[in-house]
From TrEMBL, chain A:
Residues 116-178 form a coiled coil. It comes from the Eukaryota. Residues 48-67, 78-91 have a biased composition (Basic and acidic residues). Residues 218-361 form the VPS9 domain. It comes from Cloeon dipterum. Residues 47-105 are annotated as: Disordered. Keywords: Coiled coil, Metal-binding, Zinc, Zinc-finger. Residues 13-48 form the A20-type domain. This is VPS9 domain-containing protein.
UniProtKB/TrEMBL annotation, chain B:
It comes from the Eukaryota. It is a lipid-anchor. This is Ras-related protein Rab-21. It is found in: Endomembrane system. Belongs to the small GTPase superfamily. Rab family.
C-alpha cells in the first residue's frame, strides 16, 4: 500500500456520531433516533407527556410543564418547543374518537417484531424436528415475562432488573422440567429451547436494558474508547504476543478476529453477543496456531486478545460487557467455553484500563511520550490499521443500513396503519351520519302548489264558496 | 450454581459442573499439567485441540457424573492483577509451583492468601509441587510445603507432567472435595427451602407466573 506511512484516517466525522442534542457530549445511536440514551429517555418521556396532554385536552389543569426547567439546554429545548407546538396544533377530534385510543405506546414486542421473526426463522428447523407447539408455548411464556418486565423497566435499578431476569431464566428451566409438552425432549433439546427463550426475551428488552441511563455505562464507554485511541501505538511486541505481522494468513485471521469482536455491538441478545466473542477468540486461536505451529496456551492467548481488542476499539465496549454480565443466563458465564472467552475479554479490558509503562515493558519516560502522542513508534501495523479502519467503517455502515431498512419497514407499516385508521374513521363518520339521519329524517313533502283561484281546476271546485261580506 | 435446589443432579440431570482455575507463576508447568491430564501428552505441540488454555474433562465419581472445566491462566507477572476475574465463581483452584524454585512456592502461597480472603472456605484448594522428576534439584522442602497446605485447609500433591505422575490422583481428590462441598451447599439450600416451604406464601410458587414466584423464591422468602 502506498499510503502506509499515514496514520489511521478518521472514519466518520465526530459530529455525526454525537448525540443529536447539540449540548450533549455523548455518542448518539441510530436506534435511539440519533440521541444518546439519556437524551432519548427525555425525548421519549416528553413525547409521552404531550401525547397524553393531547388525549386529555379538556382536562383544565394539564397546562404547565414543570420538567422544562431541568433540561434547559437551549438547542434541545427549542427543538422540543417546536415539537410540542406541532402536536398541540393538531385539530381536536375527540368527538369521533373510538373508545380505546389506537395510539397506545407500542410495546417492545411489536417494536422487535422483525428481529423476533428472524430469531424464529433461525430456529425453525430445530422446532420442526421436535414440536411446533413447543415454540408457540415458549413464545407465549416469553411474551408474558417481557410485558411484566417492560412495565417496570424504567422504575427499577439495573441490579433489580438483573435479578428479575435471572429469576425468569430459572423459572423457564423449572417450567421445562415440569410441563408435559417438554417432557419428551432430551436435555440438549431443552437447553436449546432455553437459549431460544433467553434470546426471545432479551431481543424484546434490548432497547430498555442495553446501556440503561440509570448506569454509568455510557461514560465508561467513552473513557475506554479514548483510552484505546491513546494506546494506538501499542504493537504486538509491546504485548509480547506472538503474532507474526508479515504473514498474510495471520493478518487475515487478525482481521476476522477484529470483525467478529466489532459485530458484538449489533447483536441484541446476550447469547448472540457472546457468540461473537467466541468466534473472535476462535480466530485468535487459529492465528496463534499458524504463528507458532501448536495449540496456544493462556500465556499466548490473553496478549493476543488484548492486541485484537486494542486494534478493534469495539464501540460501546463497556456497555456490551456489562449487558452480557447482567443479562446473560449466569450459568453460561460460570463454566463452559463461552464463559472462558468472555472472562478473558473482561481480563483484556481490565488490563487495558490499567496499562502502564511496566505492563508494556517500557521505561516510564518513553511510555509517557507515546501516550502524549509526542512520539509515534514505527510499526508495520500502521498499514494494517488503515485496513482495519476501513473494515470498521464497512461494519458500521452495514449496521446503519440494517437500521435504515428496519426504519423503512416501520414507516411502511405505520403508513398502512394510518391508512386503515383513515378508512375506519371514514366508516365511523358515515355510520354516525347514517344514524343521525335516521334519528332526524329529512322528509321532503311535495311542494304545495299555490291554488289558482280562477282556474278551472277541479280542486277549486271543492273549495267553499268565498265569504260574502254581510252588510 | 453447581447444583439445583432439589439437591439432586444439576443442569437437567446431566451431573455436576465444576470450574477449576489453575494459578501460579509462569513456567511452573500449569499448561503442561492440564494438557497431560486431559490429552495425556507432555509436549503441547502434540495436542489435538486447537487450544490448550481451556479444557474439559468428564468423569464419574461415586455414581455422579462430573463435568470439569479447567481454566488455565496467563502466568506473566503483569497479568497478576486480573486474578479475581478468573477465579470468580470457581469451585476449585490448583496453585502450582515448581519444586526447584522457592520463589514460585512463595507466589503460590500468595495466591492461597488471596483466594481465602476473597472466596473464604467455599473454594477447594490444592497446592501442587510440579516437576518432581527433577528431585535432585528440589529446593522447596516437602515437609514444610505439606504443613503449610494443611494449615490453610488445602491439599498438597507432588506431580510431574513430564512423567505423568500424581496428576490423575490430584484432580480426582480435588473433585471429591468439590463434590462434598456442592452436596453440603445443596443440603443447606434444601434446609432453607424446607423452612420457606413451611410458610404458606411458598405455595404460590408457580412455574407459569413469574411475578409471584419472583417474590416468594428470594433467599429470605418467608416472613
Ligand atoms: N522436567 C519437567 N519439566 C516440566 C514439567 N512440567 C512442565 N515442564 C516444562 O516447564 C516449562 C513450562 O511449562 P508450561 O506448562 O508452559 O508452564 P506454565 O507457564 O505454568 O503454563 C516447559 O518447558 C515444560 O516443558 C515437569 O513435570 N517436569
Ligand atoms: Mg501456561
Ligand atoms: Zn445526549
Amino acid at each position: 500500500m502506498q499510503s502506509a506511512a499515514r496514520g489511521p484516517s478518521p472514519r466518520v466525522s465526530e459530529a455525526e456520531l454525537k448525540c443529536k442534542n447539540d449540548e450533549c457530549e455523548f455518542y448518539g445511536n441510530a436506534q435511539w433516533g440519533g440521541y444518546c440514551s439519556k437524551c432519548r429517555k427525555i425525548v421519549a418521556s416528553r413525547a409521552a407527556k404531550s401525547e397524553s396532554r393531547l388525549r386529555h385536552q379538556h382536562d383544565s389543569f394539564s397546562g404547565h410543564d414543570r420538567s422544562g426547567a431541568s433540561y434547559s439546554s437551549s438547542g434541545f429545548s427549542r427543538f422540543e418547543e417546536k415539537r410540542r407546538q406541532q402536536t398541540e396544533k393538531k385539530p381536536k377530534m375527540n368527538v369521533f374518537k373510538k373508545s380505546p385510543s389506537p395510539k397506545e405506546p407500542a410495546s417492545c414486542i411489536t417494536l422487535a417484531a422483525s428481529e423476533l421473526e428472524q430469531l424464529k426463522q433461525e430456529n425453525a428447523s430445530f422446532f420442526r424436528t421436535i414440536d411446533q407447539q413447543v415454540e408457540k408455548d415458549i413464545a407465549a411464556t416469553c411474551r408474558s415475562h417481557v410485558d411484566k418486565i417492560a412495565a417496570v423497566a424504567e422504575l427499577k435499578s439495573v441490579d433489580e432488573l438483573e435479578k428479575q431476569i435471572q429469576q425468569v431464566y430459572k423459572l423457564l428451566v423449572n417450567k421445562m422440567d415440569a410441563f408435559k409438552i417438554y417432557s419428551r425432549l432430551s436435555a440438549e433439546e431443552k437447553d436449546q429451547c432455553l437459549i431460544y427463550a433467553e434470546n426471545y426475551i432479551m431481543t424484546c428488552l434490548y432497547t430498555s436494558l442495553f446501556c440503561p441511563p440509570t448506569t454509568e455505562d455510557e461514560n465508561k464507554d467513552l473513557i475506554i474508547q479514548n483510552r484505546i485511541r491513546q494506546l494506538s501505538w501499542v504493537n504486538a511486541e509491546h504485548l509480547e504476543c506472538k503474532i507474526s505481522e508479515t504473514e498474510p494468513e495471520v493478518r487475515e485471521l487478525v482481521y476476522s478476529a477484529i470483525t467478529e469482536i466489532l459485530s458484538m455491538d449489533s447483536a441484541r441478545a446476550p447469547n448472540e453477543k457472546l457468540s461473537c466473542v467466541v468466534r473472535c477468540c476462535g480466530a485468535i486461536f487459529r492465528l496463534l496456531q499458524v504463528a507458532q505451529g501448536g495449540p496456544a496456551s493462556a500465556d499466548d492467548f490473553l496478549p493476543a486478545l488484548i492486541f485484537v481488542t486494542l486494534k478493534a476499539n469495539p464501540p460501546r465496549l463497556k456497555s456490551n460487557i456489562n449487558y452480557i454480565s447482567r443479562f446473560c443466563n449466569e450459568n453460561r458465564l460460570v463454566s463452559g467455553e463461552a464463559a472462558y472467552y468472555f472472562t478473558n475479554l473482561c481480563g483484556a479490558v481490565s488490563f487495558i484500563e490499567g496499562i502502564g509503562a511496566k505492563s508494556v515493558n517500557l521505561p516510564n519516560d518513553e511510555f509517557d511520550q507515546y501516550m502524549s502522542g509526542k512520539v509515534v513508534p514505527v510499526s508495520t501495523w500502521d498499514s494494517a490499521l488503515l485496513m482495519c479502519e476501513s473494515m470498521r467503517v464497512i461494519n458500521e455502515q452495514l449496521t446503519t443500513l440494517e437500521d435504515l431498512e428496519k426504519r423503512n419497514g416501520n414507516t411502511l407499516s405505520t403508513a398502512s396503519l394510518l391508512h386503515q385508521e383513515i378508512l375506519a374513521f371514514q366508516d365511523d363518520i358515515c355510520s354516525k351520519l347514517d344514524a343521525l339521519v335516521e334519528q332526524a329524517p329529512l322528509i321532503l313533502r311535495p311542494i304545495k302548489e299555490p291554488t289558482e283561484l280562477d282556474s278551472e281546476n277541479p280542486l277549486t271546485e271543492s273549495l267553499p264558496p268565498p265569504i260574502v261580506p254581510q252588510v | 450454581m453447581a447444583t439445583t435446589p432439589d439437591g439432586g443432579e444439576s443442569i437437567g440431570g446431566r451431573g455436576y459442573n465444576f470450574k477449576v482455575v489453575l494459578l501460579g507463576e509462569g513456567c511452573v508447568g500449569k499448561t503442561s499439567l492440564v494438557v497431560r491430564y486431559v490429552e495425556d501428552v507432555f509436549n503441547t505441540k502434540h495436542v489435538t485441540t486447537l487450544q490448550a488454555s481451556f479444557l474439559n474433562k468428564k468423569l464419574s465419581l461415586a455414581g455422579r457424573r462430573v463435568h470439569l472445566s479447567i481454566w488455565d491462566t496467563a502466568g506473566q507477572e503483569r497479568f497478576h492483577a486480573l486474578g479475581p476475574i478468573y477465579y470468580r465463581a470457581s469451585n476449585g483452584a490448583v496453585l502450582v509451583y515448581d519444586v526447584t524454585d522457592q520463589d514460585s512456592f512463595e507466589k503460590a502461597k500468595n495466591w492461597v492468601k488471596e483466594l481465602r480472603k476473597m472466596l473464604g472456605a467455599d473454594i477447594c484448594l490444592t497446592i501442587v509441587g510440579n516437576k518432581i522428576d527433577l528431585q535432585k534439584e528440589q529446593t522447596v522442602d516437602t515437609k514444610l510445603a505439606e504443613e503449610y497446605a494443611a494449615s490453610v485447609g488445602a491439599s498438597h500433591f507432588h506431580t510431574s507432567a513430564k512423567l505423568n505422575a500424581g496428576i490423575e490422583e490430584m484432580f480426582l481428590e480435588l473433585c471429591k472435595r468439590m463434590l462434598e462441598q456442592a452436596q453440603k451447599e445443596a443440603e443447606q439450600r434444601m434446609a432453607a427451602d424446607f423452612q420457606a416451604a413451611a410458610s404458606p406464601r411458598r405455595n404460590v410458587v408457580v412455574v407459569e407466573d413469574g411475578e409471584e414466584a419472583l417474590e416468594t423464591s428470594g433467599r429470605s422468602a418467608c416472613c
